[in-house]
Every structure is written in C-alpha cells, then in structure tokens.
Amino acid sequence: MTYNATLIPGDGIGPEVVAAAVRVVEATGVSFNWDEQQAGIGAYDDTGNPLPQATVDSIERTRLAFKGPLTTPVGTGFRSINVRIRQLFDLYANIRPCETLPNTKGPFEGVDLMLYRENTEGLYAGIEHFDERLQIADSINRITRAGSERIIRYAFEDAQRRGRKRLTLVHKANILKETGGMFLKIGREIAPEFPGIEFDDRIIDNMAMQLVIRPSEYDAVVTTNMFGDILSDLMSGLVGGLGVTGSANVGKDCAVFEAVHGSAPDIAGQGVANPTAVVRSGEMMLRYLGENGAAEAVRLALHDVYSDAKALTGDLGGTATTTEFADALVDRVEAHSA
Ligand code: NAI
Ligand code: MG
Q1: In this predicted structure, what is the pLDDT of residue 45?
Q2: Does ligand 1 have an atom closer than 6 angstroms to the CB of 75?
Q3: What domains, with CATH codes, occur in the chain?
C-alpha cells in the first residue's frame, strides 16, 4: 500500500525540518507517493500567489497533506494560508498533544495533555472590517452551533479513544455571553453522552494560570479557535518549547499534519532547527492512516533519542544539527520497525 500525500516544505526552517521528518516517517517502511507543492511566502515570491491553485488541487486529490510552517506577514499583506487551508478543506478539529519527552527542559516532569482546538470559526473566521473615517476596526467572533457541536463531539470521542479520563472546556462565557455562552452550553449538552469522561469547564485566564502551576491536574482540553491557538503554545512551553509539539488538522475526509511552530526566521537556513514537532505530526499522520505499528515505532524512537540525549538540537541544550538528530532517529525507527 502506497499513500498519496501532498508535501508542502513551507517557509523558513520548513524545508529543513520537513525533509528530516519525511526520512523518519519513511524509515518505518510505510510508503508514500509525495506530491510536492508550494505554499507561503516562497510561493508568493515565485508565483504571486501564496496558495497556488496547483497546491489546492493536489490536496483536493490526495485529501492528505504533510506540511511545514508558512510565513504570514504581520498586520498587513495576505491572510494566513494555514487558516485558509483549514477553512477550504473544513478541517474543523486541530489536535495538539503535549507530552514531556526525557531530557527536555520544561518546568515540569510528565506533562501529558491533549488540546482540541476549533479550527474554522471564532475570531479567525476572517470577518473583519475597518472603517477608515471613524478609525474603528472590527473582527467578528463567529461561533455556530454546528461548528461547536462537531469539535466538542470530536474531542469527547478522541479523548475516549485515547483512554483520557477528563475533558475541560475552556471559554470566556462570563464576558462573551453569546459566543462563549453557547459554546459552554453545547459542551454541557453533549457531556452526558460520554459518561466515562468527567467534564468540567474553566475560564480562559484562570486556565492559563492553572496550566503553568499544576498542569498534571488536567487531561484534555477543548476550546474555541483563538484560545486554542494561545493555550497550545503555552502547553508547548510546558514540555520543552515549540520545537517538540506536533499537530493534526482533521476534517470529515481530509487531514493536514504540521508542527505547532512557525517558520522560525531567526534560525532558518542554519540546519539547527529541531524537527521533533514535524516528526510528531508524522506520527499522528501514521496513526490517522491506521499504521499504528509505524506510529508506535516513531514514538519509541523519539523516547530513545531523547533518553540517550546525545543527538539533541540547540533549543534543548544540545549541539546536534537537524540532520544529525534525524540520523539518530532514523536509526532507532529502523530498530523498532525490524
Ligand atoms: P515561530 O514558532 O516561528 O518561532 C518562535 C520561536 O521558537 C523562535 O525563537 C524560533 O526559533 C523557535 N522555534 C520554533 N520552531 C523551532 C524548532 N523547530 N526548533 C527550534 N526552535 C524553534 O513563531 P514566530 O516567530 O511567531 O512566527 C514566525 C512566522 O511563522 C510568522 O510568519 C508566523 O505567521 C508563522 N507561523 C506559521 C505557523 C504555521 O505555518 N502553522 C504557525 C505559527 C506561526
Ligand atoms: Mg499558533
């Protein structure tokens, strides 16, 4: 079996970390037919379009993409291509697991959290307006019943599959009474369908504080788009930084796997970026495809390389290059796949 997948190396450190992750994923023996396509600032510079039609057509065809980070101009310029891809293919669930690997310098040991972020609406729906004369800017925080139900149900079902015991819904319903209020109400409606999972809720600001003092109290979190964006970076910080957390964007019959981090322009081109985040996304992709043995080999290999600590990258206090880290990982993946 060979899987057709769209491969988007992306901007900044993207091509370096994606190349490393592709080697690791392929070392499991699972075979991919990669359709390499452009997106991001590089695509914009080359073709005048940050999301060329050929890239959209490719994902339309494969329904599966493995991608590097894309640079988005801040404040002005084209809108985020990541957000556009998620909206175009209705990838409503963004799943971001955060697990401590050995020898990472996070402030806690043994963090193991799942984050489910709504991925298509909320403040990122792109409904923005600027009144030049009055100098007033608006961004509409659109929350729908259908959008809330599907992410909350996805979170419960996935949490259950993973044997999680508790799901915490994060909101700001005390202030955002309509949007946050509806999201919370729907969570409470759905919770009784999953008696095996304890359900509770937290207000976002309190949750941010709770997570940095006692993350072990939490298990899985479901939240709206922007809160999920912010909390997932916070959670990455609990387990060693942005270099180590992967993510999946999943819709009904299409999925895109990518790191949580961005294009890291400060270290791009130096061959020192940590590819773990994209590798973890690759592990999630293998699991999504039902290649559980291969996914497990990647997971075990990561634990080996981190326990051994001889081939860690600079963000974790090591001196290995991206390629040296990938070499060590490929070696261990092969050992676990044999
Ligand atoms: P960033 O995640 O690119 O970098 C933040 C910090 O983390 C930097 O110091 C960077 O060196 C470090 N870092 C990130 N990934 C790393 C890795 N794999 N290994 C070692 N260190 C790593 O966030 P920033 O600087 O806010 O954004 C840069 C660009 O990336 C922006 O244009 C932003 O829009 C874009 N971005 C794209 C995302 C995507 O394509 N999914 C997600 C987040 C940001
Ligand atoms: Mg983000």
Answers
A1: 93
A2: no
A3: 2-106+239-337 (3.40.718.10), 124-222 (3.40.50)
17 lines ligand 1 (CB under 6 A): yes
Catalytic pick among 45, 205, 252, 310? 205
Three-state secondary structure string covering 58-108:
HHHHHCEEEECCCCCCCCCCCCCHHHHHHHHCCCCEEEEEEECCCCCCCCC
- Helix/strand number for the chain, H first, E second: 11, 12
- Residue 225 CA to ligand 2 center (angstroms) comes to 10
172 assigned to active site: yes
- What average pLDDT does range 148-156 have in this prediction? 98
- Is 177 an active-site residue? no
- Is 205 a known active-site residue? yes
Q: Which pLDDT band, with edges at 50, 70 and 90, does 127 fall under?
A: very high
Residue range 13-31, pLDDT digits in tens: 999 999 999 999 999 999 9
DSSP 3-state assignment of 12? coil
Whether the Cβ atoms of residue 16 and residue 273 lie closer than 8 Å to each other: yes
Residue 76 has pLDDT above 80, yes or no: no
Report how far ligand 1's centroid is from the alpha carbon of 185 (Å): 34
Q: What's this model's pTM, rounded to 2 decimal places?
A: 0.93
Instruction: Provide mean pLDDT across the span 136-140.
Output: 97
**Do 97 and 245 contact (CB within 8 A), yes or no?**
yes
Instruction: State which of 78, 263, 324 you would mutate to test the pocket of ligand 1, scoring each by most atoms of that ligand within 8 A of its C-beta.
Output: 263
**CB of 155 closer than 6 angstroms to any ligand 1 atom:** no
User: Tokens at residue 259, please?
Assistant: 């790191």
Cα(7) to ligand 2 centroid in Å equals 20
**pLDDT given for residue 104 in this prediction:** 87
The finding on whether 70 has its CB within 6 A of some atom of ligand 1 is yes
